[in-house]
Amino acid sequence: MGYRRTNSGRDDQGSLKPRSAVAGRSRHLRWLLLGSLALLGLAAALPKPDIAAVPAARETVTPTWTGVAKAIAQTPSSSAAQPLQEGRRISINGRSTSAAWGQWAASGNSAQPRIAISDSDLPKVLGIDLLNTDSLSQQPVQWFAQGGVALPTRLTGQHRYLDITDFARSLGWTTSVNGDTLQIQTPTAQVINVREGRHSWGDRIVLDVDGPIPFEMQEQAQVLTLSLDAAIAPALGPAIAKMSAAPSSGTKPSATPANNRRFRSITSIKPNGRQTLLQLRLPADSAYQFFTLANPNRIVIDVRRDALPNRSIAWAPGVRWRQQMVSSGRRSHPVVWLEVDLRQRGLSLQPITSSASTIAGIEPLLRLAQQSRAIAAINGGFFNRNNKLPLGAIRQEGRWLSGPILNRGAIAWDSQGNIQMGRLSLQEVLSTGSGQRFPITTLNSGYIQAGFARYTPTWGPYTPLSDNEILIFVEGDRVLRQQTTGKAGSGTVTIPANGYLLVARSNRTGAAALPAGTTLTLTNATNPSSFGQYPNIMGGGPLLIQNSQIVLNAAGEQFNANFTQGAAARSALGQTANGTLLIVATHSGGETAGPTLPEMAQIMRNLGAVNALNLDGGSSTTLYLGGQLLNKPPQSAARVHNGLGLFWTP
What is each CA distance from 335 to 168, 264, 288, 459, 564, in whole angstroms? Predict the structure, then answer.
């Protein structure tokens, strides 16, 4: 069977194939030979056209990749220098889109400033695919070629940019900057054929074009929209119009799409000046992957249940981006994860929340990460979506934003990269001068229990969470006053700046023992005690793996059976034997809507975790890297209360 290049790096039998940049004549010839074999294999595999073949409007143009590679090889490698300018809009042949770009000072003999685009946006707005690499300074890419070229990387505090200056020049592109917008003009091109075929694994769409073209992909509400920087060839126009026309009265229904048109996945093809807009329907259990080919130039899109390109990219010092299908024993699941070495100089991990002034609030993780200027992030612990309050441990630089509950699993870490995972509880006790002792049920938590709860100024303004609460204001070590509330949600009070607020719930007897003027002593300790040595803690649960053994006990951490056995998207953290932190997200696709908790434990073990912790999941599951969500479209991401942010300081 012929070798077929895809952006997953697999051949038709699923074997991983090596990827490398063009680095010399011998390697170029080797890729050229493999590419020729690939084209022969793909030609046999491609479906027969659904639209009659249309002659090309003009001769096919293929870039001289040897020249491109040579030019880029002379470009300075990875640079930590700060950009002269950054922007968030790119206009490609008049097609404006949101994307991050930067401009750097000219280097070498060139007087032209260097232009780079975020690696998270390059595939989406130009159709340039990222290939696997161990290099931090060069990112191999594939775009209408048998081999590949490597673009220099430029890492900032929030983005990893890829320098396209010489790449664009070699292709005849022109670039200019207009305010916040990077403008790109590319040679004109045409779409000369559109084909779709059905396979056992899903649908394949093939777009024949008469030259390498940029194209943008946007996914929303299970619809993939492609904006192609190529006009529909005149000879193809009538066939497109016929395909798009509604069937006449009395026409026998088609056996394929519900709308009786000739395609199943393609729902519309529309000309738009020198561009073409194409929309594909994505079934609920499917996704898409794409790749491009040369000689002739083609864009190939596969709609399939297991559409997860394999990734292994050295993204930043101490950070590797990975993704592939992973078995849980009975089924395979799409898994995306980051491998992080917290001992790497410049890297740090911190809890992130939506506001510095109050603990209440939820935002999409994308926004949390960007406003905190993290390079990567994952959703964190559980929360109440109605009142937007945390339900688990969050400790930041020694300060409890929210205390642990129900002896659930948690992770603790310090600035040296030391990590501990285990089930965590916090014991706080108030003592009076007369020897009375009162246990505190929760600290800064939305979890409601009878007894005394304690809230610090970190909480922000306090609003009663239950009916008939008794508020006890403590300043320093002395009770100032008491106040009885009415209905939950009525009124707001300010917590003493150098004290705390005790909230008595169904505990009038205890409140009566603490009149104004009472002197209090507060003691606290974590269990295990070793957790108290760590400045940063994030709660989740249940604990999945400890000391290489699966220790899942969801009922013991008071999670219900549906939560345990239900198939859903999951987020988790793991630690390998060498101390590497795994930041993991699974989602629907492949054979399932997501893993159960027992399956998630097995997935983490298969990834090499010797310790692992489940986090909040379902719609909350979100993994962010360098400006993009790795596991879902941003439009489908739910709001979350908190997350874990990874920060890089050059």
Answer: 33, 28, 15, 35, 19
DSSP state of 236: G
Per residue in 210-223, pLDDT (tens digit) is 999 999 999 888 89
Residue closest to 291 by CA, chosen among 624, 95, 39, 87: 39
Sign of CA dihedral 343, 345, 351, 357: positive
Location of each CATH 2.60.40.3500 domain in the chain = 1-247+256-305
Q: Where are the beta strands (DSSP E) in 510-580?
A: 520-527, 536-539, 543-546, 549-550, 570-576
CA distance 80 to 472: 53
- Report the C-alpha gap between 293 and 195 in whole angstroms: 15
Q: By 3-state DSSP, what share of the chain in percent is helix, strand and coil, each rounded to 5?
A: 15, 40, 45
Element (H, E) at 601: helix 597-606
Per-residue b or e along 97-109, where b marks 16 or more CB atoms closer than 10 Å to that residue's CB: eebbbbbbeebee
Helix residue ranges, H only, 271-361: none
Amino acid at 73: A
Q: How far apart are CA 483 and CA 473, in angstroms?
A: 8
Chain region(s) in the chain for CATH 2.60.120.1140: 425-527
Contact 364, 377 (CB under 8 A): no
Long-range residue pairs from 66-71, CB within 8 A, at least 24 positions apart, any chain: 66/22, 66/25, 66/28, 67/170, 68/149, 68/166, 68/167, 68/170, 68/171, 69/21, 69/22, 69/23, 69/28, 69/147, 69/149, 69/150, 71/166, 71/167, 71/169, 71/170
Cα angle: 566, vertex 203, 120; to 5 degrees: 70
Confidence bin at 146 (pLDDT 50/70/90) = low
Does 1-247+256-305 carry CATH code 3.40.50.150?
no
Token digits of residue 381? 């612990």
Task: For residues 372 and 346, give the distance between their C-alpha atoms in angstroms, rounded to a whole number.
Answer: 16
Please, what is the angle between helix 25-45 and helix 65-73, to 10°? 140
In CATH terms, is domain 425-527 a member of 2.60.120.1140? yes
3-class state of residue 556 by DSSP: helix
Q: How confident is the model at residue 309 (pLDDT cuts 50, 70, 90)?
A: confident
- In single-letter form, the type of residue at position 153 comes to T
Helices of type H across 334-379: 365-372
Instruction: Supply the mean pLDDT for the chain.
Output: 86
Q: What is the pLDDT of residues 591-646, one digit of tens each?
A: 678 999 999 999 999 999 999 999 999 999 999 999 999 998 888 899 999 999 99
Cβ atoms of residues 228 and 215 within 8 Å: yes
Q: Which two tokens stand for residue 73?
A: 């090889």
Cα separation, 632 vs 334, whole angstroms: 12
pTM of the predicted model as reported, rounded to 2 decimal places? 0.86
Residues 605/550, Cβ–Cβ less than 8 Å: yes
CA-only gyration radius of the chain, Å: 28
Task: Name the strands in the sheet holding 181-185, side by side, starting at the edge strand that comes first in the sequence.
Answer: 129-130, 138-142, 149-155, 160-163, 114-118, 95-104, 85-92, 181-185, 174-178
